[in-house]
Amino acid sequence: LPNWPGVIENYREFLSVSESTKIVTLKEGGTPLLPLLRIPDIIKAPISLYVKLEGQNPTGSFKDRGMTLAVTKALEKGAKALICASTGNTSASAAAYGVRAGLKVYVVIPEGNIAKGKLAQAVMHQSVVIQVQGLFDQALEVVRDVSKTHPVALVNSVNPDRIEGQQTVAFEICDVLGSAPTFHFLPVGNAGNITASWMGFKKYRDIGRIAALPKMVGVQAEGAAPIVLGHVVPNPRTIASAIRIGNPASWTGATNASVESGGEIIAASDEHILEAYRMLAREEGVFCEPASAASLAGVIAYARKGLFRQGDVVVCTLTGHGLKDPETALSVPYTHISVPPSREAVLEVLGF
Ligand code: F0G
Predict the structure, then answer these.
(1) What is the distance of C-alpha 90 from the center of its chain?
(2) Distance in angstroms (rounded) separating the CA atoms of residues 134 and 139
(3) CB-ligand 1 contact for 191 (6 Å cutoff)
(4) Which of 55, 141, 109 is nearest to 319 (CA)?
(5) CB under 8 Å to 292, separation ≥6 — which residues?
(6) Does any ligand 1 atom lie closer than 6 A to the CB of residue 60?
């Protein structure tokens, strides 16, 4: 969009900012809602399928929508420093918005367990990176505790400003489609995003911008599926490191969204997540990170079970960019062709 102003300016009337609030923005939001061309046929689903490309936000994930508001409000309240626990994307976003606001940023991450691109972002933006010898869930406990007693503003999605900002994804989807989709699929980790998206759809319904609400389907990774199992998972495991979370902070928000909307929270195996991840890249030219593809894995599972009706409009949130995690992308066998720098050698590979 020409002169896209960022999510706070664009959706000011729905967000708790005043005329005098100094807005911290990297012009996040306004991301494409892309129709998929081939996958509906491949999975034999009679649906219109769209992906919301959240990887096109300034730091490469949906977190920027909440971070712009959380950092704006923290600055307004006089914060001098920000802190978060993260599986990588929140830390990348906090680091960048912290720079923008002139605040010190501390990010607490599970050691050895975040994708390289995300770590690179936190490092480049000069945040203090604290690696804990433990899991995300433990890191979150520590930062919640520290922020209660010390002057550092917590910018995880337990901060309501994060959730409020992240609602804007639902506004954008409805603004483009002219109504809500029939189904909205998204990956679930700490469960802030499904909570926020559902809140956004309900707000648009309440003010009459949309008539019907979507069914919300949250997808957890099978080895990190506490909501599906109904209990905390002490040692979550999945290739999708962004959602390797055993005790989601917004657990209730996720169950409310699924129950109220007539949707559900389901689990996808790593194998199915990777199948969806590769299918998007191979068939649609869309490169997202593995956790993001959990949403499409959910759609594929629904199609296999025949749960869609003719004409359903289905949106998947693709939460983060594929370049965040080059290691998973390169973990498959791929053809490495090495030739001398000559016309003949290249033509030989081309088969001419
Ligand atoms: N997809 C990606 C790429 C994520 O980074 C996350 C969460 C999710 C999905 C799940 O969203 O937590 O709102 O249910 N990442 C957090 C982080 C935990 O620290 O970056 P959620």
Answers:
(1) 9
(2) 7
(3) yes
(4) 55
(5) 54, 55, 187, 242, 277, 317, 318, 319, 320
(6) no
- Averaged pLDDT score across all residues of the chain: 97
> From CA 44, how far away is CA 40, in angstroms rounded?
6
- What ipTM was predicted for this assembly? 0.99
pTM of the model: 0.97
Q: Strand pairing of 48-53 and 33-35?
A: antiparallel
Residue 319 assigned as binding residue: yes
Domains 7-61+162-329 and 63-159 share a fold: yes
| Span 7-61+162-329 CATH architecture | 3-Layer(aba) Sandwich (3.40)
CA of 76 to the centre of ligand 1 (A): 26
CA of 80 to the centre of ligand 1 (A): 25
**325 C-beta closer than 6 A to ligand 1:** no
* 107 Cβ closer than 6 Å to some ligand 1 atom: no
Give the tens place of pLDDT for each residue, 267-284.
999 999 999 999 999 999
Mean pLDDT of 187-213: 98
Residue of the CA atom closest to atom 15 of ligand 1 = 242
Instruction: Look up residue 53 and give its amino acid.
Output: L
Q: Which atom of ligand 1 is nearest to the CA of 189?
A: 14
Tell me the per-residue pLDDT of 295-347, one tens digit each, with 9 for 90 and over: 999 999 999 999 999 999 999 999 999 999 999 999 988 889 999 999 999 99
Averaged over 22-37, what is the pLDDT? 98
Pocket residue to mutate for ligand 1, from 155, 243, 323, most atoms within 8 A of Cβ: 243
Residue 1 is predicted with a pLDDT of: 57
| Residue extents of the structural domains in the chain | 7-61+162-329, 63-159
What is the pLDDT averaged over residues 221-239?
98
Token pair recorded at residue 92: 């990348």
Q: CATH fold of 63-159, please?
A: Rossmann fold (3.40.50)
- Supply φ then ψ for residue 321, to 5 degrees: -75, 145
Atom of ligand 1 nearest to the CA of 196: 13
